[in-house]
Fold this sequence. Notes:
Blueprint: E1 8-10, H1 16-24, E2 29-31, H2 32-35, H3 41-51, E3 54-57, H4 61-68, E4 76-80, H5 86-104, E5 107-112, E6 116-120
Parallel strand pairs: 1-2, 1-3, 3-4, 4-5
Antiparallel strand pairs: 5-6
Helix pairs in contact: 1-5
Amino acid sequence: xxxxxxxxxxxxxxxxxxxxxxxxxxxKIFSIHELMPGTDDIDIIQLAADKGGYILTEDKDxxxxxxxxxxxxxxxxxxxxxxxxxxxxxxxxxxxxEKHSGELINAFSVLSKKKLRIRKKN
Length: 122
């Protein structure tokens, strides 16, 4: 499913080593940190909508926009992995995307150390 997974728009709140792990694994990445630093959440959501991209973030404010305000998006994952070392964070993200790629599209997901919650859009 690697080649079918959409472009991943990585918010600058996400550790660059996670971006690197996704790139090494062969995912298509658009790094906000590298290409558009300082971009606000709404503009990142619009960019993802324009590019058909999937948002990866550690910023919980995205949840407000994507879930409660129901802004259009192709999918997003919020990482709630405080206290997890970076190698394990990257591995958890890779495993979640590899194992659940089809379910993640058009859903807002929250990845924690113990589980992945996937909330499909209504």
